[in-house]
Amino acid sequence: MRRLFFIAILAGCVCIAEAREFRCTVQINYRQLEGSGFEFLDDLKEEIEDYFNNNNWTEDRFEPHELIECSLQVIFQENITLTSFRTQLILNSTRPIYGTMAKTPLLQINDSEWSFGYSQGSPLIFEIERFDALTTVLDYYAYLMLGYDYDSFSEFGGEEHFQTAKRIQQLGVASNAVGWGTIDVSGRASIVDQMTSPRMRPLRQVYFQYHIEALDLFTTDQDTARIKVLEILQTMYELYEDQSRQYVFDIFFGTKNLELVGIFEDSQERTQAYDLLADADPSRLSTYESLLE
């Protein structure tokens, strides 16, 4: 499975040390709030970091170098009451690139519809079967990150975690809380719907092929890696043509567009890559035009 595979390609660790799944850092920004006395929100930084880094999210054991590195920025936009807030969440997760010290961005989310209550000294309780406006969102994104991460190491390896995220999403939808509506095709609730849809299985295969069959081989065989990425971009274009554009396509290209430019710049394949990227992701045409310079 995902961890066993990664252990094998990292030159054969015989024993696996027990560790958590995440190495997460959090930033809290409440400068936009009206009034004063919100310094207690600084405590939320450590609370959320502890929530991600010290809970057991899976039954797998992770080496320190395997931990999923992620960052969360919580921007408080409005205080509805002294302890109730409307916020924006910016989330990023990365994955190591085999054979290098570099990391590749795996998931980037900007969620502007997160409202919750928090008062000083309130603990964050890890109980994913119970809806809570604060922790249920954290649970959802934790399993979403796990799903994307495991999919990048083995084909459909993240299925269990996407299904857990789906159950959490259904809990959120049933609550009628802010940000869990299913009408918004680019909203929080739509991501896991799309990633668990049979129609999106080719996209999930792309995550495995891109990382294992291309990016992880880039340092040893750039020509073969570039050819594989071109095949992947052709698949993305065909998916784009086959069905109405889905939010998960924007997530892929929003996360990977600069990296894709870096793969092909100064290469013989840069014009072919530009043509495919322009067709598969026309909204970022200005970014890809650098391949023609």
Describe the protein:
The chain has 293 residues and is of the alpha+beta class. The chain contains 10 helices and 4 strands; from the N terminus they run αβαβββαααααααα. The chain has a 4-stranded mixed beta sheet, with helices on both faces. α4 packs antiparallel against α5. The N and C termini lie far apart (42 Å).
* Rg, alpha carbons: 20 Å
Q: How many helices does DSSP assign?
A: 10
Low-confidence stretches: 3-18
Quick one: biggest sheet? 4 strands, mixed
Quaternary state of the chains: single chain
Order of helices and strands: HEHEEEHHHHHHHH
Ends: how far apart? Answer: 42 Å
Query: Quick check: average pLDDT?
Result: 91
Q: What is the β-strand count?
A: 4
